[in-house]
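Q: What would this chain look like folded?
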Amino acid sequence: MRQTYVVAYDISDPKRLRKVYKTMRGYGEHVQLSVFRCELTEMERLELRGKLGEIIHHREDQVLFVDVGPAHGRAMTSFSSIGRPYGQAPLLAIVV
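A: My prediction, written as structure tokens:
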């Protein structure tokens, strides 16, 4: 089952910041600076944590994972905004 996570990061080095951003793009939707919305299985979450753990400097950087709930449950309505409306990216299947 997929869970929705908000992943936010604070990376102190520009080179590591770019690497974290590029890694995150493969796992979720970029919604704001240093914030992604990701729908992940438990295996994908562990994989992402492992990849990010290899990139960041553990004494200087921080990555937060916030579990919002099941992807097709409460998480579908948990995001709201002020100003520009938040629009969830359409779910697309890409066959390679």
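DSSP finds two helices and four strands in the chain.
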